TrEMBL record:
Organism of derivation: Melghiribacillus thermohalophilus
Keywords, alphabetical: ATP-binding, Nucleotide-binding
Protein name per UniProt: PhoH-like ATPase
Signal sequence segment: none
SUPFAM superfamilies: P-loop containing nucleoside triphosphate hydrolases, PIN domain-like
Domain of life where this protein originates: Bacteria
Entries under CDD domains matching the protein: PIN_VapC_PhoHL-ATPase
Length: 442
């Protein structure tokens, strides 16, 4: 049976293509949604971009029919702009304020009551990214759903980047002595390229080893950099060993790491980056950046020059650099960075339009990037560069993102099949026992 879906503004501002995501069903856009989209189209950020794209899509659809009748869509459904059904009579006792959210609720509620009077009523569902909007709809007896089409993964299924596996003693000894273990038959289909395997001796589970999958050679090989030191930093747990392997491998130009605060993502990446840029000369420069949430917002309201304006946003990066350079005062770090010249701390606001060859690019807090923004970054990467994306998907500051649809998780899931990328989920906090406890229970 065909259904009616009433779209909230935030659905279109999250994904302008959402109109085409409801198969053969009817999509209703309340007139107030058009007003809200119009109010955002001058924004010079991701929201503004999506508002303008939504306007263009609706204009193209307009040329194919009349919106008050419903315009057919390629998937068999239709879309219409709802100008009527704005009466508050059925909800004014509960939500009397004439806000835009309540106007959208009124349209959905009146359509629902109209359908109930028909011989074959259609289900009317409000689709919104706003949790409280869905709660209010439920209080009114309306069906309400989140828009899940843009999710990169289902709940609790974000790729970890590693697997645990118990193996026979003979295989364990072979791996220990030869540095590799052949993958035969269908067993290699269990793994993604550059996925790590935490192997344990079946007879003696306390004996373990870490390998990385090389599908083209049909083998698991030992990590080459598990005993590496970088600017005084050495891996302290299994996932940090995996991280170092990815950070130092020249054949893996895209590295993603997710994990809670204190797991060492940023410190390990900065240490590995400094070693490769300053000591080994593998890259001309290291570019370190964090998104100013939301990416694209001007930082002109902050006092001072650009470097002074960036300081509050980039302070976590500077904290890690102070630790690595073993300095006590910020002024010392400023003098060191200005003297080196090969380390650039930048805001992502200015990355669009650039081409970045032979550089190591480190993007912290990448969970606050949208799919469009992370595509913008990765398409800037030039030949000979390596990009590292770090973040915690469960600490989202962006108003339209969650742990399953942000740009970082999108990259993790889309690239896990490709040998040019590697990923690891950091599990154990190493900042302090208190920080680990706080990350777990708060």
């Amino acid at each position: 049976m065909r259904k009616v879906y009433v779209l909230d503004t935030n659905v279109l501002l999250q994904d302008p293509q959402a109109i085409f995501s409801f198969d053969e069903h009817e999509v209703v856009i309340p007139s107030v949604v058009l007003e809200e989209v119009d109010s955002k189209k001058r924004n010079m950020d991701e929201i503004g971009h999506n508002a303008r794209e939504t306007s263009r899509i609706i204009d193209r659809i307009r040329n194919k029919g009349k919106f008050y009748e419903g315009v057919p869509l390629p998937n068999g459904g239709k879309v219409r702009i709802e100008l009527n059904h704005r009466s508050f009579s059925k909800m004014e006792d509960i939500f009397p304020e004439r806000t835009n959210d309540n106007r959208i609720l009124a349209v959905a509620l009146n359509l629902h009551h109209e359908e109930q009077k028909k011989a074959n009523p259609k289900d009317v569902t409000l689709v919104s990214k706003d949790i409280l909007m869905r709660v209010k709809a439920d209080a009114l007896g309306l069906k309400a759903e989140d828009f899940l089409n843009e999710r990169a993964v289902k709940e609790d299924s974000i790729y970890d980047g590693f697997q645990e596996m118990y193996i026979q003693k003979e295989d364990f000894d072979t791996f220990f002595h030869t540095g590799e273990l052949k993958l035969e038959g269908k067993i290699q289909e269990m793994f993604y390229p550059n996925e790590f395997v935490l192997m344990k001796n079946r007879d003696h589970p306390s004996q373990s080893a870490i390998g990385i999958v090389q599908p083209e050679q049909h083998k698991i090989e030992q990590c080459k950099f598990q005993n590496e030191y970088a600017w005084g930093i050495k891996p302290r747990n299994a996932q940090q060993v995996m991280a170092f392997e990815l950070l130092f491998r020249q054949d893996i130009p895209l590295v993603t790491m997710i994990g809670k605060a204190g797991t060492g993502k940023t410190l390990l990446s900065l240490a590995a980056g400094l070693m490769q840029v300053e000591d080994l000369g593998l890259y001309k420069k290291m570019l370190v950046a964090r998104p100013i949430v939301p990416m694209g917002n001007d930082i002109g309201y902050l006092p001072g020059e650009k470097e002074e304006k960036l300081k509050p946003w980039m302070q976590p990066i500077y904290d890690n650099l102070e630790f690595l350079f073993d300095v006590k005062k910020t002024e010392e770090l400023d003098r060191i960075l200005s003297g080196i010249g090969s380390i650039q701390v930048e805001a992502l606001t200015y990355i669009r339009g650039r081409s970045i060859p032979e550089q190591l690019i480190l993007i912290d807090e990448a969970q606050n990037l949208t799919k469009h923004e992370v595509k913008t970054i990765l398409t800037r990467i030039g030949e000979g560069s390596k990009v590292i994306l770090l973040g915690d998907p469960y600490q989202i500051d962006h108003p339209y993102l969650d742990e399953y649809n942000n740009g970082l998780v999108h990259v993790v899931e889309k690239f896990k099949h490709h040998p040019l990328s590697g990923h690891v989920k950091m599990l154990k906090g190493e900042r302090s026992s208190l920080a680990q406890l706080a990350a777990d229970i708060l």
